[in-house]
Amino acid sequence: MTDYEYATELDVRFRDLDAMGHVNNAVYATYLEQARADYYADVVDIPLPEADTVLVNLSIAYRRPVTADETVAVALGVGDLGESSIPMEYEIRTGDGVAATAETVQVVFDRETGESRSIPQEWRDRITRYAQSDG
Question: What is the three-class DSSP state of 9?
Fold first, then answer.
């Protein structure tokens, strides 16, 4: 899957930088998290903390460093939904192109039992409609 139907822009903050003046590698995961939060708010119409999902997989491939004077855009697309899993693919972009690619999988869970549960039909419908509308 390489279609990224959603994108959000993020500021590089001073606290994101390491001693070399580059965005620290761990901060890339924070950028992905912020993109997910924006996506859930804008598309699924639910704040991420209320979404009852847990991150079960995270993979980041770094292509080049990001510096303080750059603006970061995170593009994301949702893959084929599972029974309880929501796979996402990302590109972290700057003016010079792609700085990293990433994949995550979130699983919907029941807060009381801690067990996975089905993705609510309302979420499925919103995710599907948004993907079909080309963002």
Answer: strand
Domain locations along the chain: 6-132
Greatest alpha-carbon pair distance for the chain in Å reads: 46
Average pLDDT taken over every residue of the chain:
94
Model confidence pLDDT, tens digit, residues 24-62: 999 999 999 999 999 999 999 999 889 999 999 999 999
pTM assigned to the model: 0.93
Please state, in angstroms and rounded to a whole number, the distance separating the CA atoms of residues 49 and 46: 8
- Total number of residues shown for the chain: 135
> What's the one-letter identity of residue 91?
E
First-to-last C-alpha distance (Å) of the chain: 16
Fold of 6-132: Thiol Ester Dehydrase; Chain A (3.10.129)
Beta strands in the chain (DSSP E): 6-11, 53-62, 71-78, 85-94, 97-108
